[in-house]
Amino acid sequence: MIALFKKNLPVPAVYAFDEDRDHLVGGAWTLQEYIQGCPLNQALRKLSLEDRRDAFRQLSKCMLQVFDVQLPRIGSLEIVGNVEGIRNLSESDLDIRVGKMVTLKGLQNPFIVGPPKDCGPWDDVRDWLKSVAEGCMNYEPDPAKPLPPIDQAYLERVKRIIDETPDILLGGSLSVSGPWARDMWSLHNVIAVIQDEKVIKLHFLDFEGMQSVPAFVRGQAPFLPGVPDEWLKLLLDFLLEHPGFRHAYEQGRTARHLLNLAENADIPGGGDARIKAFLDGEWDDEATLAG
């Protein structure tokens, strides 16, 4: 979807889409551009230290290119209207908007029987955070396997903290939404084009479950599975050269903690300790993102 919305990003072109209403394939499918190259996690093993450093520099530039994409609200991109039968969607004039948030979180649970209660979209950061705290993005569980009841008094305390958090910590450029997917930067999803034993271009695949979320969420330090800490530190240093990312990273820490607090509002017990840790600023700087 991001390839159709922002056509200058290094992602595959999309030629066709089919919902598979006749059940010939087994699910909705797309026909996309074939990208030559190899996964970056494989390419890095063959590079010198200097060329590996340059590859991470290129990776940071692509990440920042996506970070700079601005979307009008919190949710996920969707196409308005029917696209079946259209050839070469990437060159078509499509009506794309931010609609309900796509969520993949919890799909491995065998007791899911229904969709989430409320998938948005949201125009206001606080409304989204309170929706996360209320578990609106959680899939409907099997009545035979009920979840533990939510402590309503604790939930109201979390929502009150959300309301009382100063605008300076949630608003302004920190609240500007943009694209994010849980594993969008995993190196096996990054295709490297190699020439003369150097990475000359990168492409990104698999933005499955992409969401539009505030900059304070997207301004996290990158965590890439299988990448050593020293290379993650180098990648973060490259990202922090961008003033907008630096601001989201440094000034968005409290908001990320608040999202973390909201995500854990339905966990039985330990609520007082979680709130105290939040108020004392003792949380790890991470937000797992509901959905």
Walk me through this protein's architecture.
The chain has 291 residues and is of the alpha+beta class. The protein has one domain: Aminoglycoside 3'-phosphotransferase, Chain: A, domain 2. Helix content is 34%, strand content 15%. The chain contains 11 helices and 11 strands. The protein has a 3-stranded antiparallel sheet. It has a two-stranded antiparallel ribbon with strand order 1-2. A hairpin with a 2-residue loop joins strand 9 and strand 10. Helix 3 packs across helix 8. It is globular. The mean pLDDT is 85.
Characterize this entry briefly:
The protein is of the alpha+beta class.
CATH architecture: Alpha-Beta Complex
**Count of DSSP helices?**
11
Topology-level CATH name: Aminoglycoside 3'-phosphotransferase, Chain: A, domain 2
- What's the alpha carbon Rg, rounded to whole Å? 20 Å
Mean pLDDT: 85
Overall geometry comes to globular
Q: How much helical structure, as a percent, in the residues? A: 25-40%
Sequence stretches where pLDDT stays below 50 over 5 or more residues: none
Highest-level CATH class: Alpha Beta
Distance between the termini: 17 Å
Structural class: alpha+beta
Strand content: 15-25%
- Order of helices and strands, N to C? HEEEHHEEEHEHHEEEEHHHHH
| Overall tally of domains | 1
| Oligomer designation | single chain
- Largest pleated sheet: 3 strands, antiparallel
Number of strands: 11
Provide the spatial order of strands within the biggest beta sheet.
3-9-10
